[in-house]
Specification:
The structure is a single chain. With about 350 residues, the protein is mainly alpha-helical. Helix content is about 55%, strand content about 5%. The protein has 14 helices and four strands. The chain has a four-stranded parallel β-sheet with strand order 3-2-1-4. Helix 4 packs across helix 7 and helix 10 (about 225-230) packs antiparallel against helix 13 (about 280-300). The chain is globular. The two termini are about 25 Å apart. The structure holds tryptophanyl-5'AMP. Tryptophanyl-5'AMP binds next to strand 1, helix 1 and helix 7.
Length: about 350
């Protein structure tokens, strides 16, 4: 029987941030350490997503290779036999399945996606890729029957759309897809789903696509500069430490950062700081953790070469194409494009 699949992907079209590391990469590394005996883990590079709405074509290829090195530097064992790392564009079945899913997803569903609404507001030049990419993301997940998809909270709606289309097609064609677990089940399993906010504007997410240098920590930042950004982060005038994103988003963000780096449940971190009124102590602790994390990460990264990354990709992509093509064939047969699995 096939092992349950854990799958996630990180785009490479801009410098990766602390948000990517804490929201997706570190949770995946920890899942590998904990579960790789009993689960198949797919860490893929969504390079077709990276060309959506970017002009950064010249260095995308190198950035993709850098993302593989980033996974390895964060602790992912690229040689683990239950882990696959691969580029989306090297597995054509992703795009083919995305088209089939497009024929089962409604225009209204894609129009309601928050990311699409935000990116298309006040713009008269919205490319179709921005509208359509949740279908490709659903294909990335359903092609491998993934149950667990550790992502940051900003991707929750896309995961829910993936569930909806899987359930819809299962109802029509029999159980052709594994339906990914609900958001609540995902949270229980992997303690991921973080929402790391801008250190300057904690009401918005830390993001590579927003020009916010003092609020954003890049993985390439000097660790001392990153430390300063944490120490200078925006807080509030409440005067006590509470986990409350509405009234104290800056403080809540620091608690969240500590919780993910220390790999402790948020409730434990919150209890430790309850009753404490010194914001500067909290900032110091978060700053120490971020500085250490980046220092260790960057020194590991320096020891992993592009060749290491390429060798890992080439070893995995051949196998993964076989898995993906077998699944695609099944779907093609169900929707009437092939007479049988042998066709
Ligand atoms: P992307 O490339 O924008 O982000 C990659 C991962 O990093 C997480 N993330 C964050 N988490 C917490 N706080 C933040 N500030 C933060 N910023 C980014 C994201 O939630 C994500 O988990 N569409 C996806 C990539 C993708 C994918 C997939 C993911 C394509 N196909 C299939 C999982 C499964 C994206 O644009 O993520």
């Amino acid at each position: 029987m096939q092992k349950p699949v854990i799958l996630t992907g990180v785009r490479s079209n801009a410098d990766l941030t602390l948000g990517n590391l804490l929201g997706a990469i570190l949770p995946l590394v920890r899942l590998q350490q904990k579960y790789s005996q009993n689960y198949q883990i797919n860490a893929f590079l969504p390079d077709l997503h990276s060309i959506i709405g970017t002009n950064d074509f010249n260095d995308l290829y190198e950035r993709t290779i850098l993302t593989v090195r980033t996974y390895a530097a964060a602790g992912l064992d690229l040689k683990n036999t239950n882990t696959s790392i691969y580029r989306q564009s090297y597995v054509p079945a992703h795009s083919e399945l995305a088209w089939i899913l497009d024929c089962f997803i409604y225009y209204g569903e894609l129009s309601r996606m928050t990311q699409f609404k935000e990116k298309s507001e006040n713009s008269d030049s919205v490319i179709v890729g921005i509208f359509n990419y949740p279908a490709l993301m659903a294909a990335d997940i359903l092609l491998y029957d993934a149950s667990y998809v550790p992502v940051g909270e900003d991707q929750r709606q896309h995961l829910e759309l993936t569930r909806d289309v899987a359930i819809r097609m299962n109802n029509q064609f029999g159980d052709i897809f594994t339906v990914p677990k609900t958001w609540a089940e995902q949270m229980q399993f992997n303690n991921a789903g973080a929402r790391i906010r801008s250190l300057k504007h904690p009401e918005q997410k830390m993001s590579k696509s927003i020009q916010d240098p003092s609020g954003t920590i890049l993985l390439s930042d000097n660790p001392k500069d990153a430390r300063e950004k944490v120490l200078a982060s925006t807080t509030d005038s409440v005067g006590s430490i509470n986990y409350d994103y509405i009234n104290q988003p800056g403080i809540s963000n620091l608690l969240q950062i500590i919780s993910v780096i220390e790999n402790k449940p948020i409730d434990d971190v919150v209890s430790k700081w309850r009753g404490e009124s010194s914001y500067s102590k909290l900032k110091q602790e978060a700053a120490d953790l971020v500085e250490d994390l980046l220092t260790n990460f960057q020194s590991s990264l320096a020891g992993i070469t592009d060749q290491d990354a390429l060798s890992a990709l080439m070893a995995h992509e051949q196998n993964i194409n076989q898995v993906a093509n077998a699944k695609l064939k099944l779907i093609q047969t169900k929707v009437g494009l092939r007479a049988s699995l042998n066709d």
